[in-house]
């Protein structure tokens, strides 16, 4: 057999000029990689559409769709169009949707988040009335509704007032539950938010509403395109006073433990690819459902590189989502949910 690769051992020649015997590999791992049939048979991780959650950005009006420039394929939609999208996602067998609202008006408190005729509430009522086979998740934060773009009302020094904010989160949770949310997903990273929300829901008789706690959420550079989509960029400062330092893995486990103790029903790690170690550690430590949010910047990076022909979009999206599941996520919030569901059916 002629050698086409340079193997160091193959160059040793004995006195007669004959090639010394190269030992056979002791383990032949390539046997199960030989054909796609065998690879599919031994594959450890698969993407199932039910594990995917699609974000939806809703704004008031009807018949409206606006593309989000920094997120190709993502649109802001009015409630009627959102219902159309939700039905298409349901037909693909997707697990759920998570709603983000773009209110007509903003104020210092973020009242658009909890008023009964808020944009998310209006959309939830439509979805509930349509009896969709989708988990209805409401993102629970006030940064989309405050005129300053922070995640709750401010103190005089410009920092977010933690304890006033969690009261408003509780109020928002009740309003979202009354409108039809199965799950509320607090993403503001205030101390005590899960406990306050659970207490608020229970006091309102909403014992059945579950809490998906954005437990380990870092102050990530990868949220940029989302803030463009949701109009929630802080008008001053940043979110490092409440979101976690991405350098801290142990602290993220403390955050999760606190949320478990406060009554979270499921945990979320965010962003996803930059947090795979945290996801794996969380999976080993907690027995709750754990999800990950592949955020706007993770999605936009892949889209931009694919648009330039620098990587294969489909393969990059499947690979990154598979890695998130392999690391321990039971579900993934992703802007590519519809495509991934379609591809997983073809696979
Ligand atoms: C609200 C919220 C944000 C995201 C989800 N919920 C923005 C932020 O924290 O600034 C980001 C999602 C994404 O980037 O896709 N607090």
Describe the structure.
The protein has 347 residues and is an alpha/beta fold. The chain has one domain (46-346): Aldolase class I (TIM Barrel). Helix content is 37%, strand content 14%. It has eleven helices and ten strands. It has helices at residues 36-42, 79-91, 119-129, 162-179, 193-203, 224-230, 249-262, 276-285, 296-307, 313-327, 337-346; strands at 52-58, 65-67, 75-77, 96-101, 135-140, 183-186, 210-217, 266-270, 290-293, 331-333. Helix 2 crosses helix 3, helix 3 packs parallel to helix 4 (162-179) and helix 7 crosses helix 8. 43% of the residues are buried. The site of ligand PBG has 13 residues, from helix 6.
Keywords:
eight-stranded parallel barrel, binds ligand PBG, TIM Barrel, alpha/beta, 10 strands
Low-confidence residue ranges: none
Quaternary organization: single chain
Number of DSSP E strands: 10
How much helix, percentage-wise, in residues? 25-40%
H/E series, N to C? HEEEHEHEHEHEHHEHEHHEH
Tell me the strand order in the biggest sheet. 1-4-5-6-7-8-9-10
Strand content: 5-15%
- Separation, N- and C-terminal Cα atoms: 37 Å
| Rg computed from alpha carbons, rounded to a whole number of angstroms | 24 Å
